[in-house]
Amino acid sequence: LIMPPIYAIEPLDRTPATSLRLVNAFGNQVIEHLNVNQQVQVTTDITNNQETTQDFVFIVQIKNDENVIISLGWITGSLNSKQTLSPALSWTPDHSGSYLAEIFVWESLTNQDALSESLSISIITS
Question: How many CB atoms lie within 10 A of CB 105?
Fold first, then answer.
């Protein structure tokens, strides 16, 4: 029995996300300590490890120190076989405090099959 290539990869390895980071408008990485009203981009690298094109949705949610989601956004797209992309969503903290940025890579908003493990990064603002 030969398994078709599309099913040969574990579900969470189809389009793995790596290198979650915060960057400024010029693409330079910034540390996890921000100033209030300092805009950053939450970004990661995603790679389609499959032999076929993969549609995806890149989701970023920001939670405050009370675990309440204060920002939620997403980007949809498509990756060719073996293609790598670094999608990014901007966020500007308007209060000082501790935050958690979480990213998810799913097949779509209507089909929430995860294509990657979720990633998170802590952010401190003052």
Answer: 23
